[in-house]
Amino acid sequence: MKELKKADFARLDLARIRTGNPNYDSRLRAFILYCKENNLSQGIHSLNAYMNEKTISVSTKRLTKTAVKKALEKFLENDPTALENALQALEEVRPGKKQNIAINPDEIFTGEEVDKVLDFCNSSNPGNKFNTDPDKYKKLALIIWTLYYTGLRISELTGIRLSKIKVNDIATIHILGKGRRERKIFLPSGKVEEIKNLFQSKKFLFENRTGNKYDERNLRRELEKVFYNVIPGKNFHPHILRHSFATQKLKEGKSIKAISEYLGHSSTAVTEDLYIHDILSYGDLF
Hints:
- By secondary structure, the protein is mainly alpha-helical.
- It has 2 domains: 9-90, no CATH class; 105-275, hpI Integrase, Chain A (Orthogonal Bundle).
- Helices cover 52% and strands 6% of the residues.
- The protein contains 14 helices and 3 strands.
- It has helices at residues 9-12, 22-37, 44-51, 58-75, 80-90, 111-122, 136-150, 154-158, 189-199, 216-230, 238-251, 256-263, 268-275, 282-285; strands at 165-167, 170-176, 182-188.
- The chain has a 3-stranded antiparallel sheet.
- Strand 2 and strand 3 form a beta hairpin.
């Protein structure tokens, strides 16, 4: 076989290669689609162009580079010289520096703060003549409780269907999350019944008064009002409750792998980058 001096990936026909890892194969397909959409051959220059795309995260770029490497190793396993040349060319590809995505610990809500918000909701009356739902704040309390104690994304919470819930001693809920990754989360069966009764659930666990799932934007706005009312000096976004859940589980000594899988992260690296704050203190040094 002719040596691949510049790792001519077009000759490799990436569409036919299977690495055996679904994550790598998915990234290969995405790179192939990128090349087609931009009328590019599957060459090293195309890979460099892909790495310079601002809309693609650094972690995705790195995963794509690894996927291409695995494809090269698969395709050229019987030609070590060509493989060495191809891998040397691949080393020239730079995904860029990784952004710091770590969550600021000061943004996290403590259990005491969440309890304070829940107490406010459970003791409040809507107090608005234009509001037709007397249970508005009790419903918000159950939504907040569920977000905090499950780490669900708000889109996942609003999309829970009753058909995806299995109730025994505990309730097991099947979630189809980001990247269409499936996972299970758990709730006390009594809490599920409480939610169903209050929301009069028929199709979705959390339904509005018209029997449809909540509009995420409107729900987010209502949650913001509650949190800013109770804890005015702290920024709020529903996703912070997810971060708070993960941070609490880390403090309790749960493993990164277990937390990552429960949250539906694509890898443990994402979980580590978000929640691990390893800084040497004076006491560590002297």
